[in-house]
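Lab manual, section 2.4: Encoding a predicted structure.

Procedure: take the sequence of the chain (448 residues), apply the prediction step described in section 2.3, and record the output as C-alpha cells. A sample record is shown.
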Amino acid sequence: MDTISAISTPYGSGGIAIVRVSGDDAIAIVERLTCPLQNAKGYTVRHAYLHRRADEILDEVLVSVFRAPHSFTGEDVVEIACHGSLYIQQELLRWLAEEGCRIARAGEFTQRAFLNGKMDLTQAEAVADLIAAETKAEKDLALSQLRGSVSSELAALREQLLHFTSLIELELDFADHEELEFADRGELKELAQKIEETLTALVGSFKTGNAIKNGIPVAIAGATNAGKSTLLNALLGEQRAIVSDIQGTTRDTVEDTIVLDGILFRLIDTAGLRNTNDMLENMGIERSRQAIEKAQIVLHVVDVTKDEREPLLTSPGGEEMGSKPVLHVYNKVDLLKGVKQTEDPDSPNIYISAKNGEVEALKRLLVKTAQGMFQHNGTVISNARHYEALVRAQEAIRRVREGLQEGVSGEFLSMDLQDCLTALGEITGQITSQEVLNNIFSKFCIGK
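Recorded output:
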C-alpha cells in the first residue's frame, strides 16, 4: 500500500502534536527528514531534529518506530511528536507530502488495521466509540468491545453454524442418495435453540447499550406546579427551564444532559399533566405523554403540600409503564413543618425540596436505578448496525428451528443457515462490501 500521513492529535495549538506515518516507505521517508532509522528496532524512540538541510531546522522532535506487522495498522508506522505549533504541524505535513506521503482519509489508519487483520470490524468501530466516549460507562463499554467481547461471542456462534452448514451442504452433494443424512437433526435443533437464545439476549442488550452510549432518557413528569422545572434546574445546577407559579407555563419538552457517577442521563422536563381546554397546552401534554412512554426512567414529581396524589398517566400501562422504573419524588417539603428530605435506598419514594436544591439524595437514587438497569449478564451491543444484523440473524435461525420442526428439506435449511451466517459475518466484517466499509470509516476522525 502507499504511504499515508496525518495529524493524530486534535486540531489547534498545544504542548505537542503527533503526526502519524504508515506504509511501506514510512521509515525511509521519515528518515530523510529526521535521523537514521533503518536499523531502529520496533517500539523504540529516538531524539531528532526535523530538517531538510543542515541550516533548515523546523523543530526538535521525538520519533517512535513501530515495525510491521507489530503495529496498529500492521504496516511500518512512524509517529513524530513535535511541538504543537500550527505552523510546524502544517509544514511537517507539507514536507512529508513532498517526500511521497499521501494525506490519509478519515479513519484510514484503522481501516488498514482491519484490512491487515489486526482487528475485526466490531473492534474497529469500538475505536471510534472509545475516542467519542464522554462518560466512564461509555468508555468501559467501548473498551470491552475493543478487547473483543462482541467478536468472541459471534465467532463461537459462526463456528458452530459453519459445522452444520457444511454437513447439510454435503448432504446436498449426495442428493441422489436420499437416505444419507450427515447432519444430525436432533443436534441441529438443540444448537438452533441455543443460538436463538444467545441472539435474543444480544438483541435485548441493545437497549442497555444504547442507553450507555447515548444517555438514559429520564422523563420528569407530574401535575402542573409540582415543581418539575425547578427540579430540572436543581439537577443541572443552572436555570435551564422557566419557572412560574402560573399553571401550564411549560408547554413543550425541555431537554438537557447530566453525568452522574460516570453515567449520562438525558433529562426531559415535560408539560404538567392536567385536563385543560387550552389547545396549545394540550399539544404540550401530548408531547409529555410521548416523552414518558419513550423514557427509561420516570421521575413522578408530586406536590407534597396537596392531599391527593396526582395520577401519573391516564394512558394504558398506568404507573407501571411496562417494567420501567418510576421514582416518586415528593417535592416542596420546605413548605411543611416536620417533613424533611428523606432517602431510603430500598424505596422508589423520596422527599425533597427542589427549590432549596436538595437533590443529592435523588441523584444517588438515579445512579442506583441506572446501575440496576445496566446489570446485564453477557455481551452488550451498542451499535445500531450490529443490532440490525443480529435481528436478521435471529429471524434466520428462527426459520431454521421452524423448518426442523416441520421437517423441511436440506435445501431450505441450508438457505436459512447461510442467511444467519451472512448476517453474523457482516457484523465482524467477514462478509462486507466496500461501500459499507467506506461508510463506517468515513465517520472516524482524520489521523485515526
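Check your result against the sample. Confidence is low (pLDDT under 50) at residues 313-320.
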